Amino acid sequence: MSSENKEQTNLEESKQKERTRNRLVGPGLGLVALGIIYFIWYIMPFSISFLEGKPLYIHNWGYSICYLTIGLAWYHKSIVARVIALIQASYLPILASGSVDPFIMVLIIFITLAVFGVVVIIERSRENFYFKERLQKRTWEWLNLHLLVVSWFLIIHVGFLFLVVRTPTEISLLEVGYPVGWLIYYPPEIIEISTWMFDITMITWGIVAFYERFKMGYNFQNKPWPRWSFWVIVIAMILGIVGLIIQALTYGFQVNNILDLLNNASS
Fold first, then answer.
1. Which of 112, 137, 198, 259 could disulfide-pair with 240, CB 3.0 to 4.6 Å?
2. Residue 51: how many other CB atoms lie within 10 Å
3. Of 120, 137, 154, 140, nearest to 79 (Cα)?
């Protein structure tokens, strides 16, 4: 093989590795990993025992499946699939607000995941995406980009709901009586250290992901995606576990809410 052909072969191999890295690493990989690990954690025997005593925490199943679906949508550049992912992401604020029975929301989220999976399987088997031939390339690219961006925004909206809605009102609602208000469908979490760490880190993830999205643009050249959004999600998972350890070593998990904790501290 001549030096010129060898150089060309090496160049093609380099480009192929770059395309592979671009497909695998990025916000999608982080969300997929988070969704799978999050769900496995909450179907472990110790989690099932915990859910038997505090069934409202079933909302964590819904969160994990939404993260998984939105992450998978990053790998499947299809308007229909990403619309379904966005619809599922729109359930997150409803789930996080405690305005609807979490068992109903989790069921709807699983059904939406099934629909998403069917669409992806059909499109991949057809080797063609719905509506792609009917839309201009610019419209197709714009929709695919922004459907995911809005889905990401809805993910970090969960953290904002915790910080600016649930946390400031939790003590007042507990003083009125339990359950009342959003506490009917959502457990009190102001004393959950892991929730604080996880939600704040996921807000940070959203900022990083939006920056990367702005930096990469439409990425017609298929350049490798930055790794920061992936690593922030890894940090979010680690901090969530650290929060659980800190709580276990301090006041444990038998305290139901902040008022109980304050009463125990004062007695």
1. 198
2. 16
3. 140
